[in-house]
User: Which sequence fits this backbone?
């Protein structure tokens, strides 16, 4: 069975409903009868194949996901931040709610799927949200997670305006993380059009 | 000079000091973090001190008042009012708090538990980063003594420390 993740809630499908094509990059390509082609990056967790969808133009070579990289540091940091009490900064900062922590752990789990994705800097915000940010020489990205909503942006050096994204915190998904990863950390990323709705300010 | 004679307007060249405490204003390398210029919840204001008028010892005394069991005074960060304004914020006298007190006003209040819209996240984060980057942050060489014994609190393009 393959667990298929997309911008929709996670669901499972039987492998025999797919047609499979192995590409030279060792990444498997599957197609659904009712959908266009997707590339699905495969990995094995607990002897189960797990796949993740990418729109075709998200495809990049050498991006085969492997497992085993430890992200315990990230998770431990999030757990530590869950212990912050009211007024942790001495200026009346709010504690980080359980909802925010759960959404943050979900994001950390998504990051596990990208072994080459550097760990973000995670900062508690005085209003009780958590900020995940990445900086490179070419740009930066940030996702701020709240109880019910998230907001974020990705700004590359050559762009005049950042790509902006927002939504329900529970909707932070693989596609958004893949978009940030491909833009920030893949040197020859192909033009992307993620399933996640991206708003670019005019 | 009597404080009531101090003009309420803050000139662009006036030095403005932010009290810096660990662990949330400085990183593990002792570098100023963008969060040093982030306002508390439901507010758009960051407390600062008009250091040219009040002097370094006053700034240090106010900073040490902020210490709690989990928040430790580390030093003072200096900017000029013009720097703050050039990043899109305002700095205004707020002597109702105490003489010499001023506020950086970012113009965007946060909603408890929720992030601002993404364009505001971007705008504010870039602003906090820039202010933290250009500020002269002086870690206090002798934090336990009463007087300030660090560098002058006059902004320099090339910080002394």
Assistant:
């Amino acid at each position: 069975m393959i667990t298929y993740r997309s911008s929709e809630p996670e669901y499972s499908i039987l492998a025999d409903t797919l047609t499979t094509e192995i590409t030279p990059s060792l990444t498997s390509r599957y197609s659904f009868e009712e959908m266009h082609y997707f590339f699905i990056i495969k990995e094995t967790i607990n002897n189960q194949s797990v796949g993740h969808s990418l729109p075709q133009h998200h495809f990049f070579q050498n991006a085969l996901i492997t497992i085993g990289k430890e992200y315990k540091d990230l998770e431990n940091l999030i757990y530590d931040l869950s212990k912050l009490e009211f007024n942790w900064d001495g200026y009346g900062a709010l504690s980080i709610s359980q909802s925010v922590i759960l959404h943050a752990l979900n994001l950390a789990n998504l990051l596990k799927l990208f072994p080459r994705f550097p760990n973000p800097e995670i900062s508690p915000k005085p209003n009780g949200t958590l900020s995940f940010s990445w900086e490179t020489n070419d740009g930066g990205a940030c996702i701020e997670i709240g109880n019910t909503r998230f907001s974020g942006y990705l700004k590359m050096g050559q762009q005049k305006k950042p790509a902006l994204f927002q939504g329900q915190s529970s909707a932070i998904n693989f596609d958004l993380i893949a978009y940030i990863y491909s833009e920030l950390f893949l040197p020859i990323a192909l033009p992307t059009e993620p399933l996640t709705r991206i708003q670019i300010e005019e | 000079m009597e404080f009531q004679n101090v003009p309420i307007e803050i000139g662009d060249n006036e030095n403005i000091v932010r009290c810096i405490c660990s662990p949330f204003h400085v990183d593990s390398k002792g570098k100023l973090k963008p969060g040093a210029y982030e306002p508390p919840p439901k507010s758009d204001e960051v407390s600062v001190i008009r250091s040219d008028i009040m002097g370094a010892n006053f700034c240090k005394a106010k900073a040490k008042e902020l210490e709690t069991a989990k928040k430790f005074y580390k030093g003072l960060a200096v900017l000029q009012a013009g720097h703050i304004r050039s990043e899109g914020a305002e700095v205004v006298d707020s002597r109702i708090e105490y003489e010499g007190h001023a506020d950086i006003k970012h113009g965007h209040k946060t909603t408890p538990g929720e992030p601002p819209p993404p364009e505001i996240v971007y705008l504010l984060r870039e602003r906090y980063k820039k202010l933290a980057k250009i500020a002269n942050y002086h870690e206090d060489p002798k934090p336990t003594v009463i007087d300030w014994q660090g560098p002058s609190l006059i902004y320099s393009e090339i910080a002394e420390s």
About this structure: Strands of chain B lie at 15-22, 45-50, 72-80, 90-93, 101-105, 136-139. Residues 13-139 of chain B form one domain. Chain B touches chain A through 29 residues (CB under 8 Å). Chain B has one domain: 13-139.
